[in-house]
Every structure is written in C-alpha cells, then in structure tokens.
Amino acid sequence: MTPGLRLLGSFHASAIAMVCLGLLFSAPALGGRLSDATSPYLSKHADDAIDWHPWGGEALQRARREDKLVFLSIGYASCYWCHVLARTTFADQRVIETLNEHFISILVDREERPDVDGYFMEIMLAMVGRSGSPANFFLTPDVVPLFAAGYLAPEAEYGEPGFVTIVHALVKEWADNHQAILADADEIRGQLRDLAEPIPTGTARGRKDPREIAVRSWTGAFDGTYGGFGGESKFLRPNVLSFLLHQGVRRGDAALLENVFRTLDHMAAGGVRDQLGGAFHRYAVDRFWQVPHFEIMLDQNALLARLYLEAYQASGKPRYAAVARAILEDLVARFRLPDGGFASALDAETESKEGFFYTWTGEEVRSALGAEMAGPFIEAYVDRSHGLVRGRSVLRLLDNPESLLMTQDLLRESRSRLLDTRRARIAPLRDDKVLTSWNALTVSAFAKAAQVLDEERYLQVARKAIRSLLAAPSEVYRLPHSRRGGKAGEAVFLDDYAFLVQALLDLYETDFQVSRLDDARMVMEILIERFQEEPGMPFRFTPIERPSDIPVRTILGEEGTPSGNAAALIALHRLVLFGAEAVFEEQTRAISRGLGRYLESSAAFATGLLPALDFKPTEAHEIVIVGNPGDDDTRKLLGEVYRRLLHGTVLAVVAPDAPRENEKWPLLAARPLLDGNATAYVCKNRLCDLPVDTPQALSAQLDKLVSRTLAP
Asked: Do 588 and 572 contact (CB within 8 A), yes or no?
C-alpha cells in the first residue's frame, strides 16, 4: 500500500465536511444501455432509473466531452451487498436524480472485467485500507480517483457517510473548486504511478529456495486449532494449501502435512461447505468455519475439488475423495449448462435474505424427517446456539471433523430427504455467464477426478466442457473471456489462454489424445503473440493490441486463483518436457530466470507460480507408458501413477506401434515393450531408469520421486 494516497488527495476535506451537513437534489431519470450485456449483473440493472454505461471508451469520452465526474460501481451477480446496494441506494430517488444530472455512471461486473476490477481494488486498498465488493469510486473525467468506498447507504449509518451527502458534496466542490480538484488529481496521479511499481526482474541475488521461504511464511500463519490462516474471517486459499501439500510430500514434512490436513478437515466439516449439496461457499466470517458468505463460485470450487483429490493422493484417506466427489457432483447438478459449459456462480440470497436457502431451524428439520430421524441429524449437524444467521442454523458437523465420512454414511437417508425438501425452496439465482478461464479450471478438476477416482463419467464431463470452449479451434485467436446465451463478450485476458493450455495438457494426461497437445501448442503460441511484449518477459494481463484507459498490469501475485503467468509458465515447462523444445525452451528459461528476484522477495504471495520450479531440468521427470490406454495392463500401470501426488512430472502413453521418431512430440516416440506387456519408463532429461512392466516395479521407481509415501 502506498502511504499518502488519500481520500481526494489533498482535496478540501473540511469543505466536504461542511457541505455534507445536508443537501438534497433532483433530476430526470434515464437508463437502458446495459440490455445487450453478456453479464447477468449488468443485465439486471438494464432497466434501472440510473443512466448506467458499461465500462469503455464511449462512457469515458462522454465524461470528458461534458466535463463531468464519473461514478464507477464494481460488483458481481452473486454479491449479497451488491443486491442491498441496488435495493437501497440505487433505488433512492435523490441518488438517481443527482447521478443522472451531474455524473457519468459506469457499472462493471468484476468477473467479466477483472482488469478494471484489479486496478481499482488496488486503489481502494490504498485509499481506505480494504477492498471488496461492491466497490464505489468517484473519478475525474480522465479516470483519476477522488473518493472510494464499499457499500454506502443513502444516509449515514454505522459511522459511514451517506451516499446522498457524498454526491452532493462532490457536485458542489466540482462546481466551486474545479481547478483545485484538478490540481489534487495531478498529485493523486503521481501517487498512482508510485503504486504501480514495476515488478523486480532479474536472477535471484541469494541462494535461498523461494519454496522454502513461502513454506516458512505460511507455516507461521497457520491456526493450530482450527486450521486455515488468521484469527477472524477465514478464506479457503486452495492455491496456498495445494502448494503446501505438495511441499509437505516433497520434503517429507509431517508437521506441515498435519497443518494442511487439519485445515482441510475443518473446512469440509464446517458451515463454509454446503453440507447437503457439497460445494463450498466463498469464505467464513469467523475463525471456526461456521458462518459463510453464502455465494458459491465456480473457480474456487474447481480448485478445491482438485485440492481434495491431491489430499487423497497424498494421504489415502477416503474422506478427501468423498469431499472432492461431492463438489464435482454439485457442480454438475447446479452449474452445468446444456452445451457442457459451466455457469459462474450461485447467489448468496433468496427472498432478499442471505443464506436462507442453506439454513434450517430445528422445527424445519423435524418437519422434513419426523421426530425419530430428526434427533440424530440435529445432534450431528444443527447447532442452535452458535453461528446462527437470523436465528437459523448453518449445517455443520458438530463431531470430530475426521468423522465426516462416517457421519455422512450413517445419516445418508436423512441428508437425502433434507436435500429433497430444500429443492422445494426458492433456489438462489445462477449467474449463467460462461467464463473461459473458470471453465478451463473446471476441465482440469474433472480431468484430475477421472484420473484419481478412475471414473469415466468425469472424463466425459471434461471433454464436453472443453468442446464448449474450443468449438472451433481455428477461432481460438478470438477466444472470448465471457459468453452467455450464444453471445460472446469482446474482452479476453491472459488467464483465459493460460488456464486453457493447462486444461488441454491435463486432458491429454487423462485420455492421451495427441490432438490435446497440438491444441495446447497452438493456444500457447497465440498467448505469446498476444500477451508478451518482449521475448523472455512475463505476460501482461490484457492483449497487446487492445487499447486501455487504465494502466496495463503484469500480474504475478494472486488471491483466490493462480495468476495467468503462473499457469502459463508451468504449461510452457510441460510443453517442453513433451518435446516442444524448439518452440518454447528458450522462452521458458528466460522467463524463469527473470522471475528469480521477484520470487526471492514475494514468494509467499505467488504460491501458484512456485510449482514452476518443480519443472526445472534438475528436478522434472517424464513418465512414459507404452501400451494401449484401454488395456488392463496399461490401466494398472497408470493407476500407480495416478494414486501418487507427484510434482514436476509429465505423463504420456505411447501406442506399441508408434513411429520410432516423432518430430512434433519427441517424448511420444516408440519405445520397446517388455515381453509384449505394457511397459513404463521413468525418465529425467530423457534419461530413463530400466523399463518395468509390473505395477510393483513401477511403484518402487515412483516412490523415489517423492520423499516418502504416507500411510492411509
């Protein structure tokens, strides 16, 4: 955070305070520019009386032409407080009239325009010390922020100024002190330049492994009792936990693994997970994982499903497989669209009540189950004293979190009946826009599930989803970030391409169709062309050819998901291991070298990027199985690979009659069979151990790739 980035810069706070004592206004209502939006959030506001504009050159040019301040509001369709803002402030006639007369009002869906959201979230954090949605900004016509806030009621409440007071103060100051505001804007513009400090580049100065730095940092932040990080609101952080899990296995660090497993157990047993449906809510508002913010997000659940599958691989504990399966089944049931794509989110509220769909009273449970069945269920899941939401209980496992699977099995019939009862309630609204980046993460999760759980149905889900993203591979240059109802948005971002390459590689390692590798290479070539300004540099977030009214960012750090740079760099490494050296090897080496200094200083904030180090030539491995993927002996060898949590490894299956040389993918060149049986080769830099043709022999070789194998 940059010190000194202030509310209105040095803008006359005392003058605003005096004006804020009470002004009322009126103006005619307009509206209607959002009706063609692909975003349900924007579409919902298409008939507002506020004259909303979508983000873009037209709105900003109008602000400059008419010399008006800009009001920018950023939210998303499943955001509870965005709904409250719409019902209160945006419906207030005084607000409507003042905004329409004196401001150019812009509405942004943060999920559809993560570039705009990311830039202004940094500003909000610097100006008010926190960020989140909804986020509201007042800007000069050339997009310099003067004021930032979260939810604002029409009138002052809870120590926050009222929206009406703020807009009237700004109108008066813009009229009376125009030049002073512009001078302050110049000062703020300089502070914004300081805020956007360039990412340090170059090789690391020291010799410390950034993975070790990140492990120490996050280990020190663990809650030793309930898992997770911090002492109040708790975020799920699948990215961080996946990194720590891999490092725990890699290092044979029992204490680290215990912290990760404790976290996963408490998360899975808590109210932060929908105990009947299976998916996770967005985050918990308390230390104990009891009460969530109730929206359910696709990207987060895709990452969590993969995390719990990895935990199952690392531990052999069936409850982690059960949690992963429940997440995926919930995504299929409530998120999947007819074309195979997945919607973005489920709303937090029904009937204007946050969490009502997911919460219960004891009487409701007894009515659904009857007295005999209700007693054991209430004892297991319903806390009627703590963690209530408007007097209603959030279901959570009250016993030891490790008993999750046993309790689910014992109360299977009760859970099924309550789920049927819940289906009769008004369901949360679904944000049915399809985001390419989030859908690609979902493809990866289902591909991983097909591998680890050996379930063909999950592979079919992944295949249909990837077809929905790549219906015409030749059109991938015009890949959209968002689409809905047959209409595609115009924007696209690094994450869309990077996660798509990752998904294609994950699918190849599941069904071994070489076309997946071909498509991955094509998408990566386009990614480099569109998002890399100079060879060997990290990738920018927005395409080079797209003009922007805000600074272009290169993102390496992360919050909920890995950065596009993380996914792209790991995918480059994987493509090189498969044999794309001529195209990508020098790029991969140069980018990795250039990030050394950044990782040295910021490793804990880029845990999605750190696994790229596992693919260094000194650490990475290739596993090649010669055989037909559908044959029993091949499947047994694959099973040995899939049941382990391996790092820095690529997997290929080569047909027994493959050509002796493969110019496109050298790793897929023919290798001999042993005694006519499916045969496995475990290699490093293409130098292989002795080939083996039994699961036991392969198991012994694979065990050498990790520090140790944990007992179930």
From this structure: yes
Query: Following DSSP, what letter does each residue of 280-335 receive, concatenated?
Result: B-SEESSTTS-SEE--EEHHHHHHHHHHHHHHHHHH--HHHHHHHHHHHHHHHHHT
- The domain limits of the chain are 13-195, 210-431, 620-712
Determine the Cα–Cα distance for residues 558 and 544; give it in Å rounded to an integer. 22
At residue 620, the 3 state secondary structure works out as: coil
DSSP 138: E
> What average pLDDT is seen over the chain?
91
Q: Would you report the helix, strand and coil content of the chain in percent, each value rounded to 5?
A: 50, 10, 40
Q: For residues 669 and 656, give the distance between their C-alpha atoms in angstroms, rounded to a whole number.
A: 10
Residue 110 token pair = 């943060």
Q: Determine the average pLDDT of the residues in 461-489.
A: 88
Q: How far, in Å, CA of 264 to CA of 97, rounded?
A: 50
The answer on pLDDT for 39 being more than 90 is yes
As given in the structure block, the two tokens for residue 429 are 């609204």
Residue-wise pLDDT tens digits, 579-619: 988 889 999 999 999 999 999 999 999 999 999 999 988 89
The reply to whether 620-712 shares the fold of 13-195 is: yes
User: Does residue 15 carry a pLDDT above 70?
Assistant: no
Sheet holding 388-389, edge to edge: 359-360, 392-394, 388-389
- Would you state the CATH architecture of domain 13-195? 3-Layer(aba) Sandwich (3.40)
Quote the radius of gyration of the chain (alpha carbons, Å).
27
Show the tokens assigned to 348.
């937090």
User: How buried is residue 256: exposed, middle or buried, by Cβ count under 10 Å (0-12/13-18/19+)?
Assistant: buried
CATH value of 620-712 in 3.40.1000, 3.40.50, 3.40.30, 3.10.20: 3.40.30
| Confidence grade of residue 504 (pLDDT, cut at 50, 70, 90) | very high
How many CB atoms sit inside 10 A of residue 29's CB?
14
What's this model's pTM, rounded to 2 decimal places? 0.93
